[in-house]
Amino acid sequence: MKLLLVEDDPLLGDGLRAALGKAGFAVTWVRDGKAALDVLGATEFAAMVLDIGLPVMNGLEVLRELRSTNNALPVLMLTARDTTRDKVISLDRGADDHLVKTADMEELIARVRALIRRSGRSTGGSLSVGELTLDLVAHTVSRNGKAVAASARELALLRALMEGVGRVLTRSQLETSLYGWGRNVESNAVEVHIHNLRLKLGADSIKTVRGVGYTLARPAA
After folding, report:
1. Looking at residue 53, what DSSP letter applies?
2. What value, to the nearest 5°, has the Cα angle with vertex 127 and ends 203 and 171?
3. Which of 116, 52, 46 is nearest to 83 (CA)?
4. Taking 50 as the threshold, does the pLDDT of residue 182 lie above it?
């Protein structure tokens, strides 16, 4: 999926591009707000990661221009300041999510994926990990070719685990994938969905890493 990254700090931008690229995104990186609008006018993207403090035109101005044309592109705002006012301003201007630059890279990737899923901009296709195949168009899962009944929440959680195969995802990251950022979630919601998936896919299908989170093991080569 194509992702637009707008970040003027060369070191941070290079790190973000590398991490997002490793996560499977085709990243276009620009370093000022005007360049971002120029690229948006010529190319379709699944989402944009947008820094607030940019040269030429800041991130909030870019966001205002984008929304003034009724462009619903999912936007995750990045800021160096962790204040409630910054979050409120970003969300009021039309941002879909807001993250401080010091946040964990895996959290950023999980939030971007969640934004794309909720927007319906996923490119479709399927995901396969070992015996499991998740059809992203039909919203179905099969194990060894046999269909497995699963709820929408279970499919969303399984997708997050399959996209992050080999990595440990925290409960917070999985909650973001399921419900979005800033939502009040039942304290055991993720555990309930994990339990149900294990009943349907096998007790060893999803591993618990005690004190950290959950992972779908990468199949042996």
Report:
1. S
2. 55
3. 52
4. no
What pTM was computed for the model?
0.59
* pLDDT value for 93: 87
- Close Cβ partners of 31 (under 8 Å, ≥ 6 residues apart): 6, 7, 8, 10, 13, 54, 55
Query: Which CA distances in Å does 193 have to 100, 155, 173, 190?
Result: 29, 9, 14, 5
Q: Taking all residues of the chain, what is their mean pLDDT, rounded to a whole number?
A: 85
End-to-end CA distance of the chain: 26
Choose among 38, 176, 21: nearest CA to 3: 21
Tokens 């201007």 — which residue?
Answer: 93
- Alpha-carbon distance values, 216 to 12, 83, 136 (Å): 29, 35, 18
Q: What is the pLDDT of residues 73-132, one digit of tens each?
A: 999 999 887 777 878 888 888 999 989 887 788 889 888 988 887 776 655 567 788 889
Q: How far apart are CA 4 and CA 188, in angstroms?
A: 35
Q: Return all residues near 28 (Cβ < 8 A) that are at least 6 apart.
A: 2, 3, 4, 5, 39, 43, 45
